[in-house]
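FAQ: What does the model actually see?

It sees only this:
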Amino acid sequence: MMTPLDQIAAALQGYDPKSLPAETVNAFLDQLVLPLQATEAVGVFEALGRVLAQDLISPISVPPHDNSAMDGFALKGYELSTTAPTTLRQAGTAYAGAAWSTPLAAGECLKIMTGAVMPADLDTVVPVEFVQVQGDQITVPPGLVKPGDNRRLLGEDLMAGQPALRRGERLGPAALGMIASLGVPEVTVFRRLKVAYFSTGDEILSLGEPLREGAVYDSNRYTVFGLLTRLGIEMLDMGVIKDEPAALEAAFRHAAQHADAIITSGGVSMGEADHTKAMMKQLGDVAFWRIAMRPGRPMAVGRITQGDRTALLFGLPGNPVAVMVTFLAFVRPALLKMMGAKPVPTLYTKARSTEALRKKPGRTEYQRGVVTRSPDGRLSVCTTGNQGSGVLRSMVEANGLIVLHHHQADVAPGDEVDVMLFDGALS
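And it is asked to produce this:
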């Protein structure tokens, strides 16, 4: 059952829609967002970026047998002398994919390839470059290896019956390799989240329209498209919706009927004389906020219901940088939760600021930054220059956001700051 927005707000300490701290926004969204429940089975090649819907229990042990970690000579560890060279006779060669079955006599060893099964009576591998070979005799210098060295044990990576991957795991390239290594042809994942998005405003032009005075080309739909694509989300691009009640109503109704979430840009500022906010109120349960942050102060969040379907609504500001910052700070974590992904805290990288940064306490500021490694090996960060919320170039040049937290004050050169690296979410 869905909790009304006013009940969620009442449970949050210090909730003030006219000056809402950034951390309170995420706390609100954590209560608002419900994960998907529907699942489907997909093959390994189709699983990249999908969210696992149930624990994957390993049907086999990995590796399935003791094996050699490198090319060399397999032997009985107790036969190695610790004080003098050890000479052994090579009885044969063990190759990967074929088990050696003949027992070795005392003083014998086996040439072995990486990945080859270790015979039951052998427990140590001497790398080939450590050994002197003369005919079928090998000599091992003392002290180079110890009994048990260079042997991978059965189940060292994973034992049969243990969870290989957990529910809520967003499957990356390494996870695909893990699934395949278990011989599992398909996995159960949550269905794809579907998000509808559109831009609003009479001044917004679609590509292909002639430029006119007072108008600008729509960039927000394209950045939202890129951000959603990074999440592997199914998308419904609804274009640019003019600031007309009938057009807005039709767009919101269609989006709510066909998507799990709706993202709009523009039309949520406190003083805007348009119909977007009114239509949001008319069709849904929506909260309008002034967030204590820069850029991205105005934002709307709520639900729109059409028939038996309810879509989550994110009404983002109109300025291009504000759209991306609010998406990264608030919308992306909420969508990941909707996708069924387990919660992952925001990870910050520490870097020294190379310049003085002015910061007004009582709000969170996200300044576009470029992180580099200094000659001393430490990370440094500088801004991209003009931090205006309409300077789209600043996001192109940046590789992360310098996060100046709510209670933080001015930053002096050399001070450490937190940086939210884009790391594939945007770049």
